[in-house]
Amino acid sequence: MGIKSYRNVTSKKKYLILRDKIKYYLNIRKLSLESNEVDRITSSIAIKKEVNGVKQNGGDKLKFFIKNIKKILPEVVMFNALTGFFYTLLGNLVDTQEKKIRSRIKSKLILFDCILPDSFDLPIPSIVPIVSIIIPVHNKYDFTHRCLFAIKEHSIGIDFEVIIADDSSTDQTLEIKNNVKNIIVNRNEISLGFLGNCNAAATLSKGKYILFLNNDTVVQPDWLSTLISTLESDPKVGMTGSKLVYPDGLLQEAGGIIWSDGSGWNYGKNHQPNAPEYNYVKEVDFISGASILIRSSLWNEIGGFDKQYTPAYYEDTDLAFEVRKRGYKVVYQPKSVVVHFEGISHGTDTNSGIKKYQIVNKEKFVSKWKNELATGQFINESQLFLARDRSKNKKTMLFIDHYVPEPDKDAGSKSCMQYLKLFLEMGFNIKFIGDSFIYTIPYTSNLQQLGIEVLYGYHYQQNWKEWISENKNDIQYVFLNRPHVTTKYIDFIKETLQSKIIYFGHDLHYLREERQYQIDHDKRLLDSAKRWKKLEFDIFSKSNLVLFPSSMEVAEIVNADNKINAAVIPLNIFEKDTGCIANNYSVNRKDLLFVGGFNHLPNIDAMRWFCKEIFPEILNKNNEIKLLIVGSNVPEEISLLATKNIIIKGFVSEQELTMLYADCKIVIAPLRYGAGVKGKIIEAIYHRCAVVTTTIGIEGLDNSMGIIAVADDSLNFAKSIIALYNNDEKLKQIFEESPKFISSHFSKAVAIEFVEKFIL
What is the phi/psi pair of residue 161, to 5°? Predict the structure, then answer.
């Protein structure tokens, strides 16, 4: 068979599986060192020292290994019984090491096993704090003491007051103000029960928000700030709550489900808390009262917990239904992590004590909300996929791309992110598959915080087909991106689902390579272009709707096959007509700006051509002009272009990029090949900048307003820049006309009209 052949398919699969296992093992190690997501429920000591022998500063090395995973094992090997045994043995070893890291991640919860000071001070709240934290207690001083210390350690920078609602305690709780300063104690000499105790203490609250927190909890870092930001960022959210975790690290609840018979589920109970399905912001039926935050105005409007549920149980569920009754949402926030020692207060036996009211109050709840239960909730233990995030009346869209969008790094990601936000706003329930299946910081979390479930990790990388099959009846739309990703999924999706398949090509790959051939004259490009064309048209034929940003590309497709349903999609969606930080054009603007990620080959060619053939002509006319080059993944050949007049900025933040747009005089896009509408040009116009580009660069854009200058050869490109650079009247005109262009072609209204016409 030879060294370049695999002995059999099984052995090849062993190699590929092992390579993926190593990749995810390294990724878990990297996350345990660098991720705030894991840091919240990991021993601070373990994080600071090492995880499985890898010191914290080893993150860069791990990144290198993950990027170069193919170098860890040979891509081509001769397999036999011995190598097969080696790969199996090494695979088992990797599994063992992964389990060790995961067990360490979940073992020591912060402030659970540490020694607490006997006395300490909480911050002094303002007259009107942001939040009033109400902690109902009845004895169990040690738990209350630990709860308060955790609040002190993990609520830094937030203006809060703490109200201890003491329901006739007889233990050391009576002396709590001597040990913990700056708290308010509301003591009931005669027991009011849990519900009455909470309602009474809430009358003392002065905060904008009220937070009810059980005393048998240990809050984790960022627990409070993330809850507050959930309410602050969306006025439609009336109440939000935390992810509850058991002391052993397993999940207690990721939001609650109420079935049509009134019974409830703590979703995710005893599962791993870091699993994808438990880590996205979502609407839920209820949130357990161990940690809930509600708007004070809404609490007062409702009138507090309904007294018919005295002394306890179902009052938190009833409150959630009351919140929705008034037009607000109840939302689960996974970044707020709270360890809960469940059963400390009332035990677990529903046949005795206060716990028996869990059964009694269920009947009261069913009687009160019978209409809502009949129309809004699912039959017991059915439709879990929709019940867990209240998606009964939503259309589900499975959105697939190469990885989660990184909108600060490339135009394609920016476009995808804008459409994901639009689909959410239009009521879609979005599930996202990134073909890398890697949790990337902060990008995966950004999607999760928007309310998108992202499938990541080794399990879903191996079992995405099973996941799709299990949920096939609840997925109405599939939105596929890019040909090399789509070809992996489209056949299975078409066979399994009855969904509408939408393909967003971004640009025609075969056309881009044909044009590159005109520049490089490399015949291999023509062969590659033929393969891309075959692949792309195969995808077109299997899709219900084919989308491209350029009318030229859509015409090209339809002319080749008029059976293909193709449409022009606006590449970008802007909330405002301009992103410029100034209202008036400034004559103090200077310099040229290029923006483009360098993983995209046309951008490398553009800078090579401009710096070597165009910029010297410009400097002959004005040697004070500078070129600022912005873009991620700068290769060495671009770095070597740097001079006193060519500044390589590389990757910059969105904030810095906005400032660069505001200061530059002209944005250049000297693209000699490529396909599709160029996001960099739209973004420049959005920031009210003058643009000089090529015929390739302007392709698919309406230039009827004359705000884009076009030149295709070196000399004319240089002349166009010099002429525009010295014409402040023209630059001012472009500055004033740019918002009209964005409003006409790339506004939210335009995008919504498109979605309603072609997708729904």
Answer: -115, 150
Length of the chain: 760
**Type of residue found at 694:** T
At 503, is the secondary structure helix, strand, or coil? Answer: strand
The residue whose two tokens read 């969306």 is 234
Contact 47, 33 (CB under 8 A): yes
Residue 468 one-letter amino acid? I
Position 597: which residue type? Answer: G
Q: What is the CA radius of gyration of the chain?
A: 30
| Residue 760 CA: distances (Å) to CA of 397, 423, 476, 545, 718 | 11, 11, 10, 11, 46
pLDDT of amino acid 91? 66
Q: Tell me: the pLDDT tens digits for 633-642?
A: 999 999 999 9
Q: What percent of the chain has pLDDT over 70?
A: 83
Three-state DSSP state, 135:
strand
Instruction: Specify the pLDDT at position 453.
Output: 98
Number of neighbouring beta carbons within 10 Å of residue 583: 8
Rounded distance between C-alpha atoms, residue 555 and residue 423, angstroms: 26
Lowest mean pLDDT among 12-16, 47-51, 408-412: 47-51
pLDDT given at position 262: 95
Output the pLDDT for position 144. 96
Tens digits of residue pLDDT in 360-374: 899 999 999 999 999
Mean pLDDT of 199-204: 97
Strands (DSSP E) along 597-719, which ranges? 627-630, 646-650, 666-669, 690-693, 708-710
**Region 531-560: what's the mean pLDDT?**
96
| Alpha-carbon span 221 to 441, nearest angstrom | 17
Q: Which two tokens stand for residue 558?
A: 């339809």
* Cross-strand bridge partners of residue 36: none
- Torsion angle, alpha carbons of 6, 7, 9, 11, to 10: -90
Q: For residue 280, which of 167, 115, 424, 472 has the smallest C-alpha distance?
A: 424
How far is the first Cα of the chain from the last one, in angstroms, to the nearest whole number?
53
CA distance 252 to 241: 13
User: Which pLDDT tens digit goes with each residue over 461-485?
Assistant: 989 999 999 999 999 999 999 999 9
Average pLDDT over residues 691-710: 94
Sheet holding 627-630, edge to edge: 646-650, 627-630, 592-595, 666-669, 690-693, 708-710
Instruction: Give Cα 377 to chain centroid, integer Å.
Output: 28
Q: How far apart are CA 692 and CA 668, in angstroms?
A: 5
DSSP labels for 518-540? HHH--HHHHHHHHHHHHHHHHHH
CA angle 291, 295, 296 (to 5 degrees): 105
| Overall average pLDDT of the 315-323 stretch | 97
pTM of the predicted model as reported, rounded to 2 decimal places: 0.83
What are the helix (H) ranges across 369-508? 370-376, 384-387, 411-425, 443-450, 458-470, 483-496
How far is Cα 645 from Cα 144, in angstroms, rounded to an integer? 64
